[in-house]
């Protein structure tokens, strides 16, 4: 009798395919707690480096319960997933959107899936709007690379072997853009090199130049008592009207400073046009060096963009767009 009482006070644990039930014994009544089981790719989006995101924002973004089940479902056959059985390269970054319900700006993680027989690029762009500079560097210089992703269910040694065998046949092959640079190690880097990570933009050479070329330059004109910040579109804006506006706002004064500002803007426009021209020449050179198989791979490349799913914690996101960045242009579809 006493043994039966002891046994009845033990915690009983049962598991189903959907949830885990824990029954805690009590002298008067029992309570049941439910813990959702982790999905097979529950940590998929978190395995990616948030390219171009400020270091101080990363931890809070990763700690949010963003729901990317739409991305996970895209790899499932029964869901008619567009990524099922494909070789896929994934990268993530953030977009600034407006939460219309709470009337505030929020950073939202976005995942881009590139279906391709080979990595879309081994380079990364480092772009600084403030300094009006652009540099294309090897990913490895920024400690980034395409890393194979193994779903949670296949993390032990035997299961990992089975997963590799299945991946050669019908399972999707997934690679994520990761980074081995850790925030703790930033203190050993110069501030300039720390900031480069926040200026990174995923990069590749498109075979077809369908990008919408920007004709806008960001101006940071050194002046006293404060620098002059503005934008100038060399196709749509008038430099003289811009100068008049800045004079009215008392940001520019005196003929010498106004003349210096005009020359400064013209120089930035020349630099931007030169950068566009050199980028186009580099793209053409890269295409000329490609073999037929590589060209075919680029021609058949598909790009999908995934936003987090709406949840009670995160209301519907406004202003969803196909646009990825100036190098990738637009995705074929967003979800």
What does this structure look like?
- With 335 residues, this protein is of the alpha+beta class.
- It has 3 domains: 2-36, no CATH class; 45-204 and 301-334, no CATH class; 210-298, no CATH class.
- The chain has 8 helices and 17 strands.
- Strands 4, 5, 6, 9, 10, 14 and 17 form a 7-stranded mixed β-sheet that branches.
- Strand 7 and strand 8 form a beta hairpin.
- The longest helix has 34 residues, at 255-288.
- The chain is globular.
- One of its GO terms (biological process) is regulation of cellular response to heat.
- InterPro entries: HIT4 (IPR039313).
Throw out a few tags for this protein.
335 residues; globular; disordered N terminus; 28% strand; 3 domains; alpha+beta; HIT4; coiled coil
Q: What's the layout of helices and strands?
A:
Layout: H1 2-8, E1 12-15, E2 19-24, E3 31-36, E4 50-51, H2 55-63, H3 69-73, E5 87-99, E6 104-115, E7 123-128, E8 133-138, E9 144-148, H4 157-167, E10 173-179, H5 191-198, E11 200-202, E12 216-221, E13 228-233, H6 239-248, H7 255-288, H8 292-299, E14 302-306, E15 323-325, E16 329-330, E17 333-334
Parallel strand pairs: 4-5, 5-10, 14-17
Antiparallel strand pairs: 1-2, 2-3, 5-6, 6-14, 7-8, 7-11, 9-10, 12-13, 15-16
């Amino acid at each position: 009798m006493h043994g039966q009482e002891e046994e009845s006070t033990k915690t009983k644990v049962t598991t189903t395919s959907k949830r885990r039930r824990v029954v805690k014994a009590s002298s008067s009544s029992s309570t049941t707690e439910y813990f959702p089981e982790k999905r097979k790719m529950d940590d998929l989006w978190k395995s990616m480096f948030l390219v171009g995101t400020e270091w101080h924002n990363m931890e809070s973004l990763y700690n949010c319960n963003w729901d990317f089940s739409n991305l996970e479902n895209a790899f499932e056959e029964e869901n008619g997933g567009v990524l099922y059985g494909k070789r896929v390269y994934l990268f993530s970054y953030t977009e600034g959107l407006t939460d219309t319900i709470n009337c505030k700006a929020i950073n939202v993680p976005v995942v881009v899936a590139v279906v391709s027989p080979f990595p879309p690029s081994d380079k990364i762009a480092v772009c600084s709007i403030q300094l009006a500079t652009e540099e294309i560097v090897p990913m490895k210089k920024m400690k980034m690379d395409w890393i194979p992703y193994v779903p949670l269910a296949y993390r032990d040694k035997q299961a990992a072997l089975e997963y590799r065998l299945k991946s050669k046949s019908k399972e999707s092959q997934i690679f994520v853009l990761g980074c081995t640079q850790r925030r703790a190690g930033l203190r050993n880097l110069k501030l300039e090199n720390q900031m480069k990570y926040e200026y990174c933009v995923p990069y590749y050479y498109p075979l077809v130049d369908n990008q919408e070329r920007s004709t806008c330059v960001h101006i940071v004109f050194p002046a006293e008592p404060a620098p002059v910040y503005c934008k100038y579109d060399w196709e749509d804006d008038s430099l003289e009207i811009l100068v008049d506006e800045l004079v009215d706002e008392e940001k520019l004064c005196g003929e010498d400073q106004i003349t210096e500002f005009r020359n400064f803007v013209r120089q930035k426009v020349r630099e931007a046009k030169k950068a566009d021209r050199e980028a186009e020449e580099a793209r053409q050179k890269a295409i000329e060096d490609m073999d037929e198989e590589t060209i075919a791979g680029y021609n058949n490349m598909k790009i999908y963009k995934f936003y987090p799913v709406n949840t009670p914690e995160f209301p519907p996101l406004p202003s969803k767009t196909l646009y990825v960045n100036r190098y990738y242009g637009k995705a074929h579809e967003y979800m």
